[in-house]
Each structure stands twice: as structure tokens, then as C-alpha cells.
Amino acid sequence: MKKSSKTDKPEKISRVVVIGTSAGGLSALKKLISQLPKDFPLPVLIVRHISPDATGNVLIDELNKLNTVKCQHAKSGNNLKPGNLYLAPSDHHLLIGGNLKMLVTKGAHENRSRPAIDPLFRSAAVAFGTGVIGILLTGYLDDGTSGMKAIKRCGGICIVQDPDEAEYPDMPRNVLNNIKVDYCLPIAEMGPLLYKIIPRKLPMRKPVPKDVLVEAKIAERVLSDLSSVNKLGDQVPFNCPGCGGVLWKVEKDSNLRFRCHTGHAYTAASLFAEQTNKIEETMWTALRMFEEHKNLLTEMARGKKGVGSQTAVERIKKSQVHIDRIRSILKTTENEGGDDMPT
């Protein structure tokens, strides 16, 4: 009688590398991952901002051509394995759950992005504590700063690309302006640095700050209620652009940061950018409606004579004034903002 074969237990993982990038990320990631051999002793998880309609296959293919760590899209419920790189799929957040399995979720956008960097970094800080190595590369605005703070507060290691080298220095520079990072260096020096860090004995784990834990659970959709967000701060007198709900200011963060109870989260910069987009959308709608209003008045004026015709002409002129004003506003804002979502 044959003995039943035992299932292989997943290898115990005590360290993990998490990487965040946005604009300019393809080139930056190729430079970094080319330094990691097939037998790299840690799992690597990556969030790169990407548009919802993109597949991300271009990045996977480019990284696999390097013949280094095995690169693949993350799948929810899978274990983390050393020598493997897991990329967040488009339009999904990538998180690490409490059981050290990957979670791929359709949670609310953070910093106008899904996938977003902060949720991955935060979940890694909660799951691995002092065993997290966080790396932030090139990109616009400031996604990743809050996540890096969580890593730092949980005792992990923070590495930032030198902004002078970064194609888009906003993200690295925002981290440096707000956190005392462990290392700021060019990408070419990151591979050797990782091999210096990995053999070090892990420090004793720190207790996870309550606010970091709450935000991590919100991202997992474990919590999504008023009492949870109330623990993070006080309501502010403006609404969430994502769902129209009330926003709370995250008081325990030294940066201006906001959350709604459904899970949307914004830094001040990303909230401003999203409000700007919403204003522009509203202005385009108003322009369309005034033009339709003018066209209807023109149709109504046809065939009219006397006082009725004069009144219609005056109303058409007033509509044109509003149309010209809205067009002028749109012209002044057409170059503001910007989309950093690569395809």
C-alpha cells in the first residue's frame, strides 16, 4: 500500500521586497530587476501605475527577457515564493494578507490610482514588520509617501531612488521631504545594497500602529464604516471626488491626507488634481448645455416677429456670453494636471 504523499508546505518567508513606481517606471524597473538573479532569496512585489485598459503584459515580457527573477501577474490567494516577482494587475490593488498570501482586490482608488502604491506598502508593513524592504522609484505626485511612512513606523527599511537620477522625481522627492529614509541612491547601486541587507539579523518586530492597521484593513475591505474612519481623524467640509461621500482628514499623518468611509484615499496633491478634473468635467457639461440652450432658442426664434423675436435674440446673446466665459475658463485650465498612467 502506497503512503499518501505529503503536500509541500509553503516556504516560511520573513522578508519581502515591495517596489512602487509610476511615470518612467518601465525603464527604472528594467535597470533594477536586471540586478536580481533567478535565485534571488526573497519575493518581490511591484505596483506600477497603469491605466485600467492596459494589460501590463509589456512590462512582464520586458522583465522576463532579462532572464532574472521569474516575473508574473499576482494572483489572489497565492503564496509568496522567493525568486519570484509579482506585478499588480491593471485596475486592481495588490496587497499582502494576514496569512502572508497575496490579495488582488477591486478596492477603492487611492491617490487616484488602482493599483496604488500606498496600499501595498502599508499591507507589507503590517504583515512583515521589520522584514519589509520598501523601494520607491520614479513617478509623478506623491503616491508611496504614506506607505513608506508605514514601513518606517513598523521598523522596515526604506530605499528611495535619487531624485536627480529619476526621470520623474516627484515621488522620490516627496518621500525624502517627509521621511528620514535609510538609503537614497541610484538604481545601479540598489542590487548590491539588497544583498548587504538580506543577511542581516531581523530586529524585533514593533507593534503595528493602530492607524496603520485600520487603513490596511480598510484596503482589504475588512472595514468600511464610519466608526473605522472616525478613528483616523475628523471630518472636513468637502466631499470625496470618487463617491461624493464625506472626507476625513487623517490626523495622525503629518502630511495632509484624506479618506472617505468607502475606502477612497487622497494626499492633498492627488485630491487637488482630482478636484481639478471634476471641475473641468463640470465645465464641459455646462458648455454643452448652454450651447444646446442657445440652439433651442435659435430654433424658437425662427419665424417669430416683433417683440417675441427681439426677446429671443437677446436671450441668445446672453447664452453666447455664458458660452464665451466657460470657453475662456477651459482654455486657462487645459494644460493643468496630467495623467501619469502608462499603458
UniProtKB/TrEMBL annotation:
Database matches in InterPro entries: CheB_C (IPR035909), Chemotax_prot-Glu_Me-esterase (IPR011247), Sig_transdc_resp-reg_Me-estase (IPR000673)
Superkingdom of this protein's organism: Bacteria
CDD domains hit by this protein: CheB (cd16433)
Active site: S22, H49, D143
Keyword field: Chemotaxis, Hydrolase, Membrane, Transmembrane, Transmembrane helix
Bilayer-crossing regions: 120-141
Catalytic reactions of this protein: [protein]-L-glutamate 5-O-methyl ester + H2O = L-glutamyl-[protein] + methanol + H(+)
EC number(s) stated in the UniProt entry for this protein: 3.1.1.61
Major enzyme class: hydrolase
Domain CheB-type methylesterase positions: 10-201
UniProt xrefs under Pfam families: CheB_methylest (PF01339)
The name this protein goes by in its record: protein-glutamate methylesterase
